[in-house]
């Protein structure tokens, strides 16, 4: 009897915030394996902010998610059947399987799937700290900010998938690490568990003056490197505290992903403080991934980085969990447990 797959497809494009109407859960048969193919059962689905951008039709660095097709997404799972010599049933693998329970993967296609070692690193962390989000933190810190020991590094969305890896990496470079996160619980976790030297609850500072003052207190020597995940007032506040020749890695602007305008209050600070401001996309730096994954795997494997996960149960819970991610309801890496 053939296996039945469940998948969530994008059926319409959101105007502003996504809703359940934009998605449809369908059942489709799992196709017969052909030579060279591998059947993967997904155990974990990664939910990531970039997915919101893919739901739009406009100009971007990546192709839009096609309508009436399975939503794009990173997955971790195990091989259940293989007609490719490099894969055997039981192999733990990560790939881009999408919002579905199974995927059939061409085992020979580079970059589609890789085997991972779960001896010291739990499988789900390959979608977070030891996966794309962790590498994003690594690339932004090392490649763009290029920190020196003793400098002060600041990151917004500090307790999320990218932010938690950034904290550990900045500390490993001998820097002062300061996080910005939403709420006292997240801030306590940033300092007590993630090793940040300080963390500012931006929700307790509703205006620019107050947030900028809190940053001044947390960063007595100013800010040398800023890893931007959010945009808007948070970016304005950090820019006021940047030291001369500071570097800003623009990784994300999640405060604007549902179409909100994000004006910059004082762009003249780029000139006045002689800042380097550079956006980057982690998938355009594949040459850096092996070194990044090695360091991140060691940090997690040795317990120096203990990333937290928010876990939604079952494929049908994915849309709601995704909406929560865009509103900060996640605490750590947002995952969906599929089996
Ligand atoms: N450039 C790249 O290649 C690349 C790759 C991966 C990720 N990214 C970007 O990196 C950022 C973090 O991604 P992630 O996967 O680690 O997500 P995450 O931090 O685990 O989750 C998103 C977090 O963003 C914060 N947030 C949401 N809306 C916000 C708002 N309006 N104002 C302030 N904060 C808000 C929330 O944290 P609080 O509760 O603390 O506000 C939320 O928990 C995103 O911007 C993402 O697009 C970029």
UniProtKB/TrEMBL annotation:
SUPFAM superfamilies: GroES-like (SSF50129), NAD(P)-binding Rossmann-fold domains (SSF51735)
Superkingdom of the organism of origin: Bacteria
InterPro entries in UniProt: ADH-like_C, ADH_N_2, ER, GroES-like_sf, MDR_fam, NAD(P)-bd_dom_sf
Example GO molecular function: oxidoreductase activity, acting on the CH-CH group of donors, NAD or NADP as acceptor
UniProt entry tagged with the keyword Oxidoreductase: yes
Domain Enoyl reductase (ER): 18-336
Keywords: Oxidoreductase
Pfam (any one): ADH_N_2
PANTHER family: PROSTAGLANDIN REDUCTASE (PTHR43205), PROSTAGLANDIN REDUCTASE 1 (PTHR43205:SF7)
Name of this protein: NADP-dependent oxidoreductase
């Amino acid at each position: 009897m053939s296996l039945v797959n469940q998948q969530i497809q994008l059926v319409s494009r959101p105007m502003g915030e996504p809703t359940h109407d934009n998605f449809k859960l369908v059942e489709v048969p799992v196709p017969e394996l052909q030579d060279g193919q591998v059947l993967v059962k997904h155990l974990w689905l990664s939910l990531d902010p970039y997915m919101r951008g893919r739901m739009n039709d406009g100009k971007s660095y990546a192709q839009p998610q096609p309508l009436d097709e399975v939503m794009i997404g990173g997955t971790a799972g195990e091989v259940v059947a293989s007609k490719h010599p490099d894969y055997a049933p039981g192999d733990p693998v990560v790939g881009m399987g999408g919002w579905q329970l199974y995927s059939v993967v061409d085992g020979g296609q580079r970059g589609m799937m890789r085997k991972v070692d779960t001896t010291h690193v739990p499988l789900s962390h390959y979608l977070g700290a030891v996966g794309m989000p962790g590498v994003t933190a690594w690339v932004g810190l090392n490649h763009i900010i290029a920190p020196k020991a003793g400098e002060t590094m600041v990151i917004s969305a500090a307790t999320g998938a990218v932010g938690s890896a950034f904290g550990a990496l900045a500390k490993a470079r001998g820097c002062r690490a300061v996080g910005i996160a939403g709420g006292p619980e997240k801030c306590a976790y940033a300092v007590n568990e993630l090793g940040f030297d300080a963390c500012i609850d931006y929700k307790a500072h509703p205006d620019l003056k107050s947030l900028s003052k809190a940053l001044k207190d947390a960063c007595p020597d100013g800010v040398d490197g800023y890893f931007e995940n959010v945009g808007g007032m948070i970016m304005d506040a950090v820019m006021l505290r940047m030291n001369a020749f500071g570097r800003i890695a623009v990784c994300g602007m999640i405060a604007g992903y549902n179409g909100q305008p994000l004006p910059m209050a004082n762009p003249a600070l780029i000139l006045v403080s002689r800042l380097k401001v550079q956006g980057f996309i982690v998938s355009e730096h594949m040459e850096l991934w092996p070194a990044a994954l090695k360091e991140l795997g060691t940090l997690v494997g040795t317990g120096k980085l203990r990333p937290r996960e928010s876990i939604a149960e079952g494929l049908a819970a994915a849309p709601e969990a995704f909406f929560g991610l865009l509103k900060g309801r996640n605490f750590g890496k947002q995952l969906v447990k599929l089996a």
